[in-house]
Amino acid sequence: MVNFNQYDNIELSDEETKIALYNAKREKAGKLAEKEYWKKVSAAPEVLKLSYDEAYSYYRAKLKSIIGKDFTLTDEQENIFSILCEHFTSNEDEKGILLLGPVGCGKTTLMRVFTENQKASYAMVGCRKVTYDFALNGFQVVDQYSRIINGSANKFNQREFGFCFDDLGTEEERKNFGNSVNVMQDIILNRYDNNLIGFTHMTSNLASEQMKEFYGERALSRIREMFKIITFDVNAKDLRK
């Protein structure tokens, strides 16, 4: 037990008293700051959770930041945007999204808006880039895109991320050291086998028969099983014109 009276006979000058008080306060401030730091470290991270209405406003703002403040959506784009808001806030549908439509109708932009979402966030990658990477680096690229991405936690407290393969059908079959491979076909089949359905999305302007021609009946069957298919009208306006 501390005897607080044992130094009563010691007198301090005003300056010494000020210094002693300053040092005591500085030490206590340090302890308080350390306590607050460890409180934050040990606390459960705040996880963003959006209802449909909240998601609509949240992603509408992101869409505006991508397109510009004067952006407008066509009625069809508005409808598809609403479907995507519902999909990425629902716990019911575990499939990925396959967004189909003609060139320039807004497929890539809409999918880019939802890259961070509370269901399963993902990175956008062009199918042409995937096949270029294969030509340079070989089969490790097929393996890379057949898996999830591990990273730092995002605002939804996710550390595992999927892919959205953009413009399926625009890539070419490429060779690596003489090995000719249908890279996207292999990746689709691998991601199905690896049970990464909810972590896989695609955009394309291919019709069903073209997909069968490009990737084969087996891959087409997997595509039908893996994805919730959303389709723009074939006459959807090219917004780039």
Name given to the CATH homologous superfamily of the domain at 94-231: P-loop containing nucleotide triphosphate hydrolases
Overall pLDDT score: 88
Q: Strand share of the residues?
A: 15-25%
Largest sheet: 6 strands, mixed
Number of strands: 8
SSE order in H/E notation? HHHEHEHHEEEEHEHE
CATH architecture title of the domain at 94-231:
3-Layer(aba) Sandwich
Tell me the helix content.
40-55%
Radius of gyration: 28 Å
Distance between the termini: 84 Å
* Overall shape: elongated
Please identify the structural class as seen in this structure: alpha/beta
Report the CATH C-level class of the domain at 94-231. Answer: Alpha Beta
Q: Please name the CATH topology of the domain at 94-231.
A: Rossmann fold
Q: What is the tally of helical segments?
A: 8
Which residues sit in consecutive blocks of at least 5 with pLDDT less than 50? none
Multimeric status of the protein: single chain
Structure description:
- It is built from eight helices and eight strands.
- A hairpin with a 2-residue loop joins strand 5 and strand 6.
- It has a domain at 94-231: P-loop containing nucleotide triphosphate hydrolases (Rossmann fold), CATH 3.40.50.300.
- Helix 2 packs across helix 3.
- It has helices spanning 14-42, 52-67, 75-87, 107-113, 127-137, 139-144, 183-193, 208-226; strands at residues 96-100, 122-126, 149-150, 160-168, 174-176, 179-181, 200-204, 227-231.
- By secondary structure, it is an alpha/beta fold.
- The model has no long low-confidence stretch (mean pLDDT 88).
